[in-house]
Amino acid sequence: MDTVAIVGVGLIGASFGLALKKAGFKGLVIGVSSEGAIRDARALGAIDEALPLPEAAAQADLIYLSQPIGRILETLRHLDPWVRPGALITDAGSTKRAIVGAAGRHIRRTQFLGGHPLAGKERSGAAEGEADLFRGRAYVLTPSSPGELETPAARWLVEWIGRIGGVLYTLGPAEHDRVVSFTSHLAQLASTALAATVAEHLSPPGELAISGPGLADTTRLALSPYEVWRDILETNADCIDAALEAFIQKLESLRENLRTRQMRDEFRSAAALAARLRR
Fold this sequence. Notes:
This protein is of the alpha/beta class.
């Protein structure tokens, strides 16, 4: 593959361009995005040139959709007439059922393979792009059937995920959405709820100053903007609802056992998971 078109050159899109270049990709990287994002991506060296979507899609061997989920869904509705047969369309959306379903309805002339790099930061935008953003991070592909991973284009993508440092996993779209409702979406909402609760019950700056680093650590994700999360919550509401229900039940159990020895078991179980994550 000689030409990659990154549609939506924000944090993930710019980082993907930088990662490809650092890993040795010698082809052309085209950016499709807003004027400001293109300017920042050019300044970083994440893209080589900018084009409108129809022109970029007509040239690209790989089309990488790294927009917000709602924009990815909209792009998929219009993309098919512009793509080259034999190209590969993939995405970086944080939920997969809606996106893979839309691709199945609208993409006919070439292959679509859903993807989700579990990498990011609290801050968004092309200026935050990092070549090593994906290194050591899970990168999930969500084929609808195993054969989708065996095409030449898909094998190329798998190879480059490894080259940029991603740790490849394969899940079906529904299983992906269930898993990330616990590993990603619940973590975000728990951090948001904690920060909102503290904000409602303490009077900054005086009372808030009486805190250790634990509060800052556990509210880090609360810095994430709602605009990034709106489409995630909407397209995975059922799985997130189930994860929240399990979390609420756990909080209720903790409250009921504040004075019992069962709390020790909860601490031990939680510490074991935290240790595994840090290994």
